[in-house]
Amino acid sequence: MERKRAGKTYNDEFKKTIVDLYHAGNSVKDLSSEYGVSEVTIYKWVKAFTPISSEEGSLTPKELAEIQKENLRLKQELDILKKAMAIFAKK
């Protein structure tokens, strides 16, 4: 039996707007009551859309997770190719 997700779906532009308003000084409580989004959800958006700064630039946690996922996939592909090369080198 499949459970359907209840609730609204918001696009990334709306989420980023809420996060920008939060960074501009609005409280989560005020944003929650004004836009009808739960406080927990706003905190998740703030965490997901707030950039992590470094010397080379800034990434959001979401972008960092995508890069890590791609890196893992590439490592797995490289391991497969190495194993294939070992098999063909024996012949």
From TrEMBL:
Pfam families: HTH_Tnp_1. InterPro entries: Homeodomain-like_sf (IPR009057), Transposase_8 (IPR002514). One of its GO terms (biological process) is DNA transposition. Coiled coil: none annotated. SUPFAM superfamilies: Homeodomain-like. GO terms for molecular function: DNA binding; transposase activity. This is Transposase. It comes from Priestia koreensis.
